[in-house]
Amino acid sequence: MALTFREDYWDSPELKKELINFINQIHRLDLTLWDEKGYWDRKYRPFSFFEGNRIVSSVCIYSMDMTIDGKRSLVAQVSAVGTLPEYRRKGLNLELSKRAMEWAEDNHDFFFLFADEEAFPFYKRCGFRQVNEHKARLALTGMTARPGAVKLDVSTTDNLDMIYRIASNREPVSNVLGVTNEKLFMFWCLYFLKDFIYYIADLDILVLYERKNGVLTIFDIVGTHVPVFSELYPCICDESDSAVEFMFMMDKLGLDEIEYVKVEGNGTHLYGNFPLENSKFIFPLTAHA
After folding, report:
1. What distance in Å separates the CA atoms of residue 239 and residue 141, rounded to the nearest whole number?
2. Domain spans, the chain
3. CA proximity to 77, closest of 120, 119, 110
4. Do 4-133 and 135-262 have matching folds?
5. Are 24 and 31 in contact (CB under 8 A)?
6. Which CATH architecture best describes the domain 4-133?
7. How far is CA 153 from each of CA 63, 162, 197, rounded to the nearest angstrom?
8. What is the pLDDT of residues 90-134, one digit of tens each?
9. What distance separates the 2 farthest-apart alpha carbons in the chain?
C-alpha cells in the first residue's frame, strides 16, 4: 500500500488518537492525559506518513515563544521523531524532517532538539550541529526552612487549575533564555515533575525542585515575578543542603560565585542562528517537548 503524507491533522480525532498511539509505541510515552486535560494544542504540529490510517513515520514541530537576551523570538523544537521498525532505512524520517523544516523556517528564528546518541548521525545529515549546555551550580550552607512551601497534588482539579493560572501569567524565568509556554509546562507537571511542585503563597509562585544527596535541583520558578534567591531559598531550604543546581538560566536570582557544570545526556542540537551558542547556556528543562 502506498504511503500518504498528512500534516496538522488536529481536527481529526481518529488521526490524533493514532498519533498518540504512535508516540507511545516509539517513545513509550502516552500523551493521553496531556490531551484529555486540554493542554496539548496545535503548536505541536505533526508531519506524518500513513499507511491507511496507521502512522508509520512521523516528525513534530513544536512552535514556542522564547525570550533571548531580552527579545521575543519564535523558535521551533523538533520532537517525537520516529519510524516503525519495518519501515526504517527508507529515508522516511529524513523526508519528513525536510518538509517540517521547510514549513517552519520562514517564520521561526532557529531550530533546536534533544536526541539520543544513536540519532546524532541522522541529525547531522539534516544540517544540525551538536552543542553543549551548562547548568549553574552554587555551594550552599544548609539551614532549617521556614514555613511556606506547600507540596501540590496534581491529581486534584483545584491544584491543577491553580498551577495553570500561575503558569498562564508567568514571566520568563530568565531574560537571557526563557519561555512562557504554559501548556508545555503543564505536560511536565502531569508527567515527569508531578512529584516536585511546591507553592509559596507569600510569593505567589510555584517552585519545582527535588533534593538528592545534599544537592537541591531547581527545575523551574513560575510566577508573575521571579524573586531573588535570597528571598526564595529560606522557604525551600534544608539542613542537608550543600549545593544547588539550576535547570534554567538564573540571571534574575541575584547570585554571584556561580560554577558552571556541563549537562550530560541532553544531546542538544541546533540549526540556524542561536545568539547564545558561544556562551554557557541551558534551555529551560520545562521547555523540552
Report:
1. 8
2. 4-133, 135-262
3. 110
4. yes
5. yes
6. 3-Layer(aba) Sandwich (3.40)
7. 29, 11, 8
8. 999 999 999 999 999 999 999 999 999 999 999 999 999 999 999
9. 66
SS (H, E, C) the chain: CCCEEEECCCCCHHHHHHHHHHHHHHHCCCCHHHHHCCCCCCCEEEEEEEECCEEEEEEEEEEEEEEECCEEEEEEEEEEEEECHHHCCCCHHHHHHHHHHHHHCCCCCEEEEECCHHHHHHHHHCCCEECCCEEEEEECCCCCCCCCEEECCCCCHHHHHHHHHHHHCCCCCCCCEEECCHHHHHHHHHCCCCCCEEEECCCCEEEEEEEECCEEEEEEEECCCCCCHHHHHHHCCCCCCCEEEECCCCCCCCCCCCEEEECCCCCEEEEECCCCCCCCCCCCHHHCC
* CATH number of the 135-262 domain: 3.40.630
Vertex 10 angle, CA 124 and 116, to 5°: 25
pLDDT, tens only, 136-192: 999 998 888 888 899 999 999 999 999 999 999 999 999 999 999 999 999 999 999
Q: Is the pLDDT of residue 1 over 90?
A: no
C-alpha cell at 84: 516503525
* Amino acid at site 79: S
Q: How many residues does the chain have?
A: 289
Which amino acid is present at 145?
Answer: A
Interatomic CA distance for residues 263 and 133, integer angstroms = 5
